[in-house]
Predict the 3D structure of the following.
Amino acid sequence: MELKNRITDKGKPTFFKEHQIALYKSLEDKHTTVEVEEDPLGTRMILNMGPQHPATHGVLRLLLELEGEKILRTRLDIGYLHRGVEKIAENKTYQEFMPYTDRMDYLSPYSNNVALCEAVEKIADVQVPERAQWIRMIGCELARISSHLLYLGAMVMDTGAISFFIWTFKERERLYDIFDNFGGHRFTISHSRIGGVHNDLSPDVIKMIEDFCEEFPERLTDWKKLLNKNRIFYDRNNGVGRITYDDAIKLGVTGPNIRAVGVPYDIRKFDPYLKYDEVDFEIPTRLEGDNLARYYIRMEEMGESIKIIKQCLEKMPKGPIRTDDAKKSYPSKDEVYYSMEGLIHDFMMTDTGICPPEGVESYKAIEAPKGELGFYIQSDGTGHPWRLKINSPSFTNLQALEKMLDGEMIADTVVMIGGVDPVMGDSDK
Amino acid sequence: MNKTELLTRILNELKDEFGDAVIESKTHAGDRQTRVSREKIHEICSWLKEKHSFDYLVDVFGADRFTSEDRFEVIYHIISLKTGVRIFIKTWLPEENPQLPTVTDIWPGANWNEREIWDMYGVRFENHPDLRRIFLPEDFKYHPLRKEFPLLGIPGSFELPSTTPDSE
């Protein structure tokens, strides 16, 4: 009875009535053990935040039950960016579906492309040439830097420093220029292909990447100088949004968020893909599990990424960039334009696509900037997946955010959202 | 001992422990999926966690097999952070009133994944602490990842707000 009054005291919900009622009801039923002192002023209230809110990094909606300034319990409402990509995948060939993955985690499109291609190559048994694998690694690491840069800019802005956002975006702009020369697109690059990559790296872009690798560590050092001992930044992040080791494992947190509690879980080492077992790099971990730890980890990861890219450029062999099996990969445009067989193969790849064996299923994950991004494919022997499940890192991390927020202060909400670094396109699928 | 051998040993132990409840096991490209009977799924999950430290639940998800018998499938994807073994346990459910016991008491992280299965396939989870739809609003009455749901959606299934401003 009281519940209905709460929602309806300022008029009835006009939109998605059952949904609103169920959401408020679930907040009321949620069991948490947050200790509060008696509040004689009766400042208990429910605050709705989002889905249209500049600090929620997209369309995340939070329902916060407050006791004064303290958050008692939280419910997250996601799905405002749900486009049903898993349903779309079932009606597309594998290659046709790849551009949709760009739009999932739209801050690191390259990683998503690689994740899908790796998964399809695993289930259909396609061998990828060496050079293509190194190119993919470079792309993935650049995407990681780009994603962490946005995290850094946005999260520091959440703590109050606006100018930082401009500085990190200046570097991201350089990365976009690199991607533009890399695969012909600045943002949704779709450069990876099943069986290889679309085009080889030109000497120009290699020069650009080398220059970036030379200059970026300096920027990183500057930013560390600005932030690490900054009183305001430190105090706003230290001890905020802490999650314990046990809780992190129980909730299945992934990516930098689980490494911030001291679990060195990184697919690049745990289950190496591409050529990550041939390069030398470290997995930064911390023990504190708070927002500051997550910040340190991402800063260090950017440095490690630069290390990986440098090694890739050194070790990259010459050779083909796409598999030469016409049944498994698109032919090059030269073949399509100047030979009949090339045209037929191109047509067949577009029409039927690559067909894994019937009734098999397999899973392949990569370490995306936000955590484990995996594709589980069930095949029915045609060119379309029967079922394609996306295990997206933001979805798993947001679940932990619900737990992190309980018992914290309302002013830290935006900082915590920024610290977990969710992308709604990724979590809502 | 490498991961494949370890997984084989664990599955053999599982077979010894639960007997007929372990139905079949398939391997492709190094991934091995083991199908178990749905009555024992909760017991098997807690056994895996207790005995073989499968402490990290990566994902739980559903699939629609679109057959007249045992139509739905729920797949548990678990890893052990200690040994690094990845295991896939799956179970089949009937078309009429598909139900499973929840595993949120074993891995609290299964909460949102089970809500997603309920949302997308209409599989109910008994004793789930908060079984609401996750992506779609409660007012939506279909389960869109079922194979019979059309790709273009069902017209009128969403109550959309009026696009003209209120005139009073």
Observations:
- The radius of gyration of chain B is 19 Å.
